[in-house]
Amino acid sequence: MSNKITELFKIQYPIIQAGMIWNSGWRLASASSNAGILGLIGAGSMYPEVLREHIQKCQKATDKPFGVNVPMLYPDIEKIMDIIVEEDVKIVFTSAGNPKTWTEWLKSNGITVVHVVSSVKFALKAQEAGVDAIVAEGFEAGGHNGRDETTTFTLIPMVKEQISIPLIAAGGIATGRGMLAAMILGADGVQIGSRFVASEESSAHEAFKNVVVEAKEGDTQLTLKELAPVRLIKNKFYNEIVAHYQKGATLEELKTLLGRARAKKGMFEGDLDDGELEIGQVAGLIHDIKPVSEIVEQILSEYKIAKESISNKNKF
Questions:
Q1: Is the separation of the CB atoms in 48 and 59 below 8 Å?
Q2: Residue 84 has pLDDT above 90, yes or no
Q3: Domain of 271?
């Protein structure tokens, strides 16, 4: 399955495993890369030296390409970027910031740069900054999200119409059918997050994985748009957010409620009541916890079957 994305990253299939906080450690990234897709380590939940350790372990666990996802709001961003160069990582996905800040420097160090956006406006800015590809993420996605609530189905063709560099679709994609739909809309590849949370190699707590598998339609909600929009599973903490809104909470009161380390408490430590449980709407289509290799195999099989089905339907 050769196209712009497989050629850009030197991978077998045009699928990227998203670099999610508290979920995407070296085990998930290396398993993903070994399965023929691009694995990403999620630097957003790692201290600099912890990231170095994960990179080194990933390098030992796979001889295939892998990358690091870096939210640019990270407080130790300079240290993170230096470690990425020192450890000879060749692919970086940036998000949550201005792509102009680091793209030129990263590319001068021989690194392929991809930036995550949630709108056409930011896609154009990323292209202007010189990135090699763009991830356009619809608001169905889990975790931190765009404020405009543009769906993937709408966002992908609008971005495709405006840019000339490779486009990766994200948000609400967990199956081969979803992958095919995104590529028909104009994507060259897909980034998948939530499905890989419910994998054996994910570093998420087992209790959180089970909640993802049990999730149904309507069990997630985008909230906290005044701080940083985030899609959460509805639990005790989410209900407290709703109560704060109902009483007209100020920005400072919302910040106090959120506090620190809520995501770690929920996803990594398994506190299902008071933790922040970030997952996409597509959790309603995730019904089991499997090894990454089986997840990738299933996605590719579904993709092939769906593509053949479309071809047969179009025969007159």
A1: no
A2: yes
A3: 207-282
Q: What is the DSSP letter of 13?
A: S
Give strand pairing partners of 16: 38, 191
Give the mean model confidence (pLDDT) for residues 16-26: 94
Q: In 3D, which of 155, 152, 105, 145 has the Cα closest to residue 129?
A: 105
Residue 223 tokens read as: 């909230």
Looking at the fold, whether 83 and 196 belong to one and the same domain comes out as yes
Q: How many domains, the chain?
A: 2
Hey, is 69 helix, strand or coil? strand
Backbone angles phi, psi at 199, to 5 degrees: -120, 160
> What does the pLDDT look like over 203-227, one tens digit per residue?
999 999 999 999 999 999 999 988 8
Q: Taking all residues of the chain, what is their mean pLDDT, rounded to a whole number?
A: 94
CB 193 within 8 A of CB 171: no
DSSP-derived pairing of the beta strands 39-42 and 230-233:
unpaired
**Tens digit of each residue's pLDDT (9 = 90 or more) over 246-271:** 999 889 989 888 888 889 999 999 99
Residue 2: is it exposed, middle or buried by C-beta count within 10 angstroms (0-12/13-18/19+)? exposed
